[in-house]
Amino acid sequence: MEAASSAGDTRFLSGLLLHPKLYQVEVKDGKIASIVKEEEKLWNSKLGQVIDYGDAVVMPGLIDVHAHLDDPGRSEWEGFPSGTKAAAAGGITTLVDMPLNSFPSTVSRETLKLKIKAAENRIYVDVGFWGGLVPENAFNPSALEDLLNAGVLGLKAVYLIIAFGLAIRGAESFMCPSGINDFPMTNTSHIKEGLSVLAKYRRPLLVHAEIQKDLESPLGHEHGANDPRSYSTYLKSRPPSMEETAIRELLTVTKDTRIGGPADGAHLHIVHLSDSSSSLDLIKEAKHNSDSVTVETCPHYLAFSAEEIQDGDTRFKCAPPIRDAANKEKLWEAVMEGHIDMLSSDHSPTEPKLKLLEEGNFLKAWGGISSLQFVLPVTWSYGQKYGVTLEQLALWWSERPARLAGQELKGSIAVGNFADIVVWEPEVEFNLNEEYPVHIKHPSISAYMGRKLNGRVSATFVRGNLVYKDGNHAPAACGVPILAT
Ligand SMILES: [Zn+2]
């Protein structure tokens, strides 16, 4: 692939600006060499190949900063090959893999090496890695520095305490009904230590923020009131106050990240926000006080609401939970107004048997939404009602995630950047049914199956390589592991 070009009525996003005129993007050695207006383009230039995408939208490839590909160790849940094929088919050109749900967790130089080895020659898009901040390394700055020097793009911590004996299993915390938990949770002191080490590296700390302080279960004890097949039982078990309490505590340490503060240079990013009330207000306040803080939410919190989740349909179980329709409206408002900085998939699959689809027990089923391939059409389709623009999609899914992950040459279409590009047709409608080419390993556990969506991805380029086109992938897996230097 020598050149990707746009012609005809193509709408082309240079960086984030929509140019209604006609442009041609020249790609050379994996990077964008020039962006030329139609009337100025030189057909006698040395372009090797010219592709005309007609009416399609040409946009920077999506960067998903929150995906669990479960490789090595649990590749039967997803794995790098199917996960990155699904990403490519969904217009994602870079994803950052979470340090948990694979085995072992990515918490040291050695375990990062295992990740890189598992990814080599098996990834269809570029993949970076977050390292884990866990109690065993949090008070050991040299261990953390060793992990950061080995190339993780930042650290991830699970700040989640469930202080009662109820069998609730979260996406980030409890591994599966066998009771494995190989990614221990952190507290405020660990977070503070992590931030002070990260400051030197100017890399972020991502945090799953949920905390249950009461020793009592929030579930009532009345006989029959807590049907485990009822979504409301699960929802009650993880109220918005769990997010709020965690975020309130986290924000006591983020003042260290202010300019001139002891952790100036570090940054705290709150993952998968679901509560759009008090939790969001706290984040707004911290930003107002110049704490270095950002927040993401995920398409499933923007697409679904608790009211529509049928009894026993554990495909919708995730943590924090999908809340009511009013919460969803407020979440959209926050995204549209810029209080939520970016979106991520939090693709967190497992094997169908652990989703307990037949039993339908929300309290025992694996928590995690399978979505990787669908995030672009989902954001676009469900965003229509709110007037989502292409520029906003590029901001939430490309530019800001690139900044969080420290990828200066990604996230926008600009001369000198990597030619990471998605070509897609926003008007094309499709049904996510058995006939649709789905590339995630276990389509049956995805809450999106059966939905009608708008926005079909026609081609995806990673570093100028055409990795996906109309349902087919390139024969070679030519994505590369991205390591921080
Ligand atoms: Zn996650």
TrEMBL record:
Any Pfam family: ALN_composite
Q: State the pathway, as annotated in the record.
A: Nitrogen metabolism; (S)-allantoin degradation; allantoate from (S)-allantoin: step 1/1
Ordered alphabetically, the record's keywords are: Hydrolase, Metal-binding, Zinc
Give me the ranges of the annotated region Disordered.
217-238
| Keyword Zinc tagged | yes
One GO cellular-component annotation of the UniProt record comes to:
cytoplasm
By its UniProt entry, which InterPro entries does this protein fall under? Allantoinase, ALN_composite, Amidohydro-rel, DHOase/Allantoinase_Hydrolase, Metal-dep_hydrolase_composite, Metal_Hydrolase
This enzyme's EC code(s): 3.5.2.5
Q: Which GO molecular function entries does the Swiss-Prot or TrEMBL record give?
A: allantoinase activity; cobalt ion binding; zinc ion binding
Give the Basic and acidic residues compositional bias ranges.
217-226
Q: One GO BP annotation here?
A: allantoin catabolic process
Under catalytic activity, the entry for this protein gives:
(S)-allantoin + H2O = allantoate + H(+)
Domain (Amidohydrolase-related): give its ranges: 57-467
* Record-annotated Allantoinase composite domain positions: 25-56
| NCBIfam families tied to this protein | allantoinase
Which family does the UniProt entry place this protein in?
Belongs to the metallo-dependent hydrolases superfamily. Allantoinase family.
Q: How does it assemble?
A: Homotetramer.
Extract the PANTHER family matched here: ALLANTOINASE
Q: Briefly, what is this protein's role?
A: Catalyzes the conversion of allantoin (5-ureidohydantoin) to allantoate by hydrolytic cleavage of the five-member hydantoin ring. Catalyzes the first step of the ureide allantoin degradation followed by the sequential activity of AAH, UGLYAH and UAH which allows a complete purine breakdown without the intermediate generation of urea.
Q: What is this protein called?
A: allantoinase
**Source organism (scientific name):** Ficus carica (Common fig)
Organism phylogeny: Eukaryota, Viridiplantae, Streptophyta, Embryophyta, Tracheophyta
